Amino acid sequence: MEHSISATEARVHFGQWLRRVKEQNMTLIVEKGGSPEAVLLSMAAYGKLQEAQHVGGSLDVLARARALRETIRARRNGRPLPAPEDVIAAMREERTDELAPVR
């Protein structure tokens, strides 16, 4: 569950909001001047976020793309990938064949 409050509301009732965030496992967005400025979330939600970052966020996107490319190459045993336009043409042909009985 997500909820938004003003920075003033957060300051005045911080203890109450802290308790609600923990007990209801909610995400609290704190706004200043109508713009989101900060987020308050439970330790459980924070732990999940940290875990996800360790699992998938430790490598940058380019490194992950390179690793994926190498995985694909290994699975294809060195055979080159077909050209994208060939894949699209084959998929269109397959779709046309599937729709032929309907026409």
Any descriptors?
three-stranded mixed sheet, YefM-like fold, single chain, 103 residues
Task: Give a brief rundown of this model.
The protein has 103 residues and is α+β, with helices and mostly antiparallel strands.
Overall description:
The model has no long low-confidence stretch (mean pLDDT 86). The protein is of the alpha+beta class. Strands 1-2-3 form a 3-stranded mixed beta sheet. Helices cover 60% and strands 17% of the residues.
Topology:
Elements (H helix, E strand, L loop, with lengths): L1 E5 H6 L1 H11 L2 E6 L2 E7 L1 H14 L4 H15 L8 H16 L4
Parallel strand pairs: 1-2
Antiparallel strand pairs: 2-3
Tally of distinct domains = 2
Rg, Cα atoms, Å: 25 Å
Which structural class is indicated by helix and strand composition?
alpha+beta
What is the β-strand count? 3
CATH topology of the largest domain, by name, is: YefM-like fold
The CATH architecture of the largest domain is 3-Layer(aba) Sandwich
Strand order of the largest sheet: 1-2-3
Main β sheet profile: 3 strands, mixed
